Structures
1.
Amino acid sequence: MGGKRDSYTTSELRHDWLADRWVIVAPQRSERPEDYSHVVSVHNDSSDCPFCCGHEFETPGTLASYCSANPVGSKSWQVRVVPNKFPAVNGLRYRVDASHGLASHGPASHAPASSPHFPLTVPIDSEAVLSTGIDLYVRRELSGGHEVIIESPLHLQSLSQLDRETVGLVFRAYRDRLAYWRCERNSSYAVVFKNVGYDAGASLAHTHSQLIATDILPTEVQRHVARMEEYERIEGACLFCRMLAEETEQGVRIVDKTARFTAFCPFASRLPSMVNVVPNQHSSSFETLNEVELDELAWLTHRLIRRIERCYPKAAYNFVIHTAPIHKQNSTAFHWRMELFPRITKVAGFEWGSDCYINPIAPEDAAASLRTVGL
Amino acid sequence: MGGKRDSYTTSELRHDWLADRWVIVAPQRSERPEDYSHVVSVHNDSSDCPFCCGHEFETPGTLASYCSANPVGSKSWQVRVVPNKFPAVNGLRYRVDASHGLASHGPASHAPASSPHFPLTVPIDSEAVLSTGIDLYVRRELSGGHEVIIESPLHLQSLSQLDRETVGLVFRAYRDRLAYWRCERNSSYAVVFKNVGYDAGASLAHTHSQLIATDILPTEVQRHVARMEEYERIEGACLFCRMLAEETEQGVRIVDKTARFTAFCPFASRLPSMVNVVPNQHSSSFETLNEVELDELAWLTHRLIRRIERCYPKAAYNFVIHTAPIHKQNSTAFHWRMELFPRITKVAGFEWGSDCYINPIAPEDAAASLRTVGL
């Protein structure tokens, strides 16, 4: 593929097998003229930042905190986990509200309040549905948690500004909180994610990550699990183990690697310069990482973010840790992964309408830029 | 539901039956503090705008043009359709490139070059796949078209600035170009969409829409078709016909209506203040609209955009026209619809990771604001 460089100047379709989604790779789109520019302003006054050291009373109570082996001055914590003050997830019990005017039949109303096996999606062809009709207005309460991992007592704005010890503590916090939710009654799904900058959906600038745990498994996650299990059934191997071997052999999409982890740009990335980080040995669950592995992954992530910040100065970015859903621990089909991506394009009408993304940077080109940038 | 107003102050899950996707409605999220603000600058010099009257030579040749019944001055066109100079879609033949190092087996390589029935997705459990293995690196050329509908010879920036006659001509252009692609050999799918403003993914400010036609049916569109057919099979009725009856009875999510069309905020909107516009009588295909219907819809859309611009000044917005895929014309299950939505929130890490959206405005509240705003 390396020798066919000129093939990247016209559009092509690539198939993302996991998501069963076509992506349009269209490098010529990046030559478009641009009438718009934007300037992001950051309110950057640490004196009223609720995440800064000394403002602990402005957040809900501490769920976990982590100290440096060599604390500087009076700082009693280096990383701190608190409940989100404006949670997206709340409620402790199931509820079906029939006040919308349709009868409250349908699967939701059949779930006992305490069932940990609440149906994950609304089936469309079961006998129950056939006999009662499809309810287009199913609603219920959402049970789970929404937490904030504050990554420094100082008013820093990117994980790349943390020292090696602190970024290791941040990844310990991810591991510990995911492990906590794995044991929580009714949990189905927990995800750690990070939004940095305006275009990535951040609201506060102080460097932080978030965890959301829910009692439902989102439909798309459930589809991905089914695809990985289907791959294993047909191929007798884990999808990402196989892909990793192939990526290593081809080499053109590799960005960085360590003894235990590999970072590469996926063949059918829907967003430009997206990077996947996966463990080299099969593992379903991020929360089983030991201290040495966490430190190695944390520092690799730090380096990947520096690569992104060098290639795309001031770009907003996100990352997401996809660990196995609660009921799929120790799955031989599910390989945990981290997705990391700068937010350098906008999602426009075509993508919203079709879920078919136009990526203006060929993943091979993105990987070459990220791999070779000076750090 | 109207009497339960206080229920919208905590999160709840709502199920979007069509997309089989849970949405989190979380009004309390809109109270979050915000460190970021942004200012969009528009390069607004019509002297170098390729879409302005007098610059026709800067775009590829005209595909269609529409004149006013009462032309002003020397303007020879009022609405003009041209190929996109930086198309996302190109290529005229299928191609499978095996240079990625894996054998080029798998479904893609079996498609004859001229087949209009190229498999729409890569099947995962067919015998062909079982015998040849799953190819994780399927790529092919993309055949189709990418067009721009220039909505005025003047340097205007929103469809809401057009007069009634011109917005009618714009909708005629949509109808005619969709009808053109419906007859094109190998076409599977065509979509009209509009991006206005930086956050909506626009690159040029001069008011315009786009059409993309492809020889594949995007997987998500195919899923929606399957859900609508499943609904019809179980319920013996069209999903949107049924939903429209229910929305009309409940009333709380209705934004606007005319004799032939209804605009409402969907019960499980994944984006805040999203509006669906649907024909009151079942119709699968936008391109079958007659002149009177087009004029009525065009002016309703104009009014809806003014409502959005009054409620969310300077907000970017998109709309998308979902007409039946080429092979589903005259479907009794597929009801065409238009989705219109301001871009007032960002898609963050959680949404990218889970495809589960957090909507901070309850659709009932969004509809009330849009319905009652002064025009």
2.
Amino acid sequence: MTGSKKKIVIVGAGFGGLAAAKQLAKSDVEITLVDKRNYHLFQPLLYQVATADLSPADVAWPIRGIFSDQKNVRVALTEVQSIDRENRRVIGDTASFDYDHLIIATGAKHSYFGNDHWEEHAPGLKRIVDATEIRKRVLMAFERAEVAAAEDEQRRELTFVIVGAGPTGVEMAGAIAELAKRSLAADFRQIDPTSTRVVLVEGGPRVLATMPEELSAKAKKSLEALGVEVLLDTMVTDVTEEGVETSSGFIASGTKIWGAGVMVQNMANWLGVETDRAGRVQVEPDLTVPGHPEISVIGDAAHIPWKDGTVPGIAPAAKQAGGYVGKRLAQIVAGGAPSSEPFRYRHQGDLATIGRNAAVIDFGWAKLSGPIAWWLWGLAHVYFLIGVRRPLFVMLSWFWSYLTFQKGARLITGLRPLFRADRPDGAVRENPKKNAA
Amino acid sequence: MTGSKKKIVIVGAGFGGLAAAKQLAKSDVEITLVDKRNYHLFQPLLYQVATADLSPADVAWPIRGIFSDQKNVRVALTEVQSIDRENRRVIGDTASFDYDHLIIATGAKHSYFGNDHWEEHAPGLKRIVDATEIRKRVLMAFERAEVAAAEDEQRRELTFVIVGAGPTGVEMAGAIAELAKRSLAADFRQIDPTSTRVVLVEGGPRVLATMPEELSAKAKKSLEALGVEVLLDTMVTDVTEEGVETSSGFIASGTKIWGAGVMVQNMANWLGVETDRAGRVQVEPDLTVPGHPEISVIGDAAHIPWKDGTVPGIAPAAKQAGGYVGKRLAQIVAGGAPSSEPFRYRHQGDLATIGRNAAVIDFGWAKLSGPIAWWLWGLAHVYFLIGVRRPLFVMLSWFWSYLTFQKGARLITGLRPLFRADRPDGAVRENPKKNAA
């Protein structure tokens, strides 16, 4: 009975995987959407979870809820181990799934350029647990500084280093500077949070390298207005518990955050094809894998030529590719020949935000910066959230933060010890501010 | 300079500790508020985090934010190890604090009646991490059932046992039944979530034992209307990974939640006084510790006689005691003699909710149940949240859930494996619903 329907397996419930599944809503197929998490993550706002503006539930949405009404989709919570290409079968850790067509949409993570041991000291920001871990580290830094016995220890705790000045790095740097200088300013008695140092380290010659130079310059200016130190043309050579070693010197820092590089895992293993240096699959013009017309790769995991380089790893690109592949498969399962049109990426623009009230936007036909850009940035994200998340809540959270400078989600949760075990037993320290007065 | 001011240390930022600190807002004292977490927890709504109705940030509020404007309070994030009563000093793991007056407001946790190894299988609900852990277990039970190969394994995963029919147990049972039968009903393809069994096991003869019998009966009826099986006069004799052994038989269950017993820790050690069987300190009529007029104990940690028993361990009682002690200390530090009035508890009523649209309330002068009681329950909680939390957000979350039956916070987060390691490798299972049709 069920054998007559074509089986489509989609691995990954990010923007690409969802778009593909939705495009197939009216097709007479059996779709299995496989993900190791039970939620779709709205990654563009994840940094706001890390900086305590939003809660995890504001940027993540249970996959099952998204497909409650689309009966040709079943959701499987499992972690893919391998792909049996000969028998057309996806092998997960708790279940396996046969396919007639397979869509790989597993995304990318940050790259430590061969220094994976840096991750422990400088986590990247890709998952909910990353965001809550970074939130915890950022908030705990102020707590540790408040009870630190030595001046240099206090300075170290109040120094935050962000590596990589792409959108995530720029947004994190702006948000941490604002957190310190506005939201937390009145909350401590021994330290002055406004003395916090936020250092953004970038190997290239400008921030937001994919955007026009003019906007890079404006973004840098906005960051500096918030007190962020921007170090360009600066290479990171080591990351330790104590700080970050760079080509222009050592920065003692208690909290390091990684936002550089792109790395795609598993593709060579799973698909038996060659990948580019970032691990991405070099797909055909119709996004299928060379030699495997029944397998498509979309989103960050695919290397798709565009202009002088490749299609960027952003949500709209993944959505477009997912829609393209979904439509193509719908044509195939309907018995027709798929359109021979290759995938064509349409770039809708770039945008990034720098703290409250500043953003830079490049629509191609227009470049914006300043408060108007900020409000447009917010509207754009709320618009993209519609149908996926409760935009009302996100808007209200922002509006509330905007009015009050209170960060509602400023929670340090978890079971591990809050302080490092090697801290010297803290003695009662007199208030340095009072002593100085 | 700072030595001339009286030092007041408050341990615990629950309802009691906050009330005491706020009562001292206008006093010329140096208050140190010590807690091992950085947030105040609105415990009466914590179960809604466990059942995915609310996010952690909806029921917890950073302590520093609460006291931003009260400059005589400094907040210290540290875990108290011991109290040096002779030198009047609280010893924490990262810092220590001298006191002239000490207020202990550390609360209570559930008691496993000497079987602490049951906790691993049946966690209680006292902290944010408990709530997110229980949420994860509840949601993962449905996920595991969806991929379970054997029928009895599926039944076991879809059986939830809650031990203890106090307010937490009753509220959890009602909320899980509703989650399964309404919110998740359309989300699975292999299992039917509406076939979920929720069993509430209570050792005593009725649910909500502290409330009038009439309301206990109504609460039981409301639970049964939601499909909850209520087992009264039933003792739990063992809790294992596989299920719960009771005086009326074994219940195979994948998810067990503990809501029974009360236990206060550390009091005998810290204060060198005798405690009652639950570990609570038998305080003087002015809430001070016998032999230590400079130490007060309030909230769940105190044994305060009332009527035939003791003052109940609920938020209004802790607030009243905190206000009383704060006022008394304000009189003392102002140089006057404290009022000789003993602490008098005023009981304002009991309330509990059973799923959507049903609640029971006992004001003493009035007893309510049904939808009107439910709306009053909601209003009462929103009222208590004012000044502590963003009541608007909680109201909107409720209103949204109410309209849509969607649970916004249905996230399974964390780094540990989602499935138990001992699961048999899952084979692809045909859809039993389809086969049966």
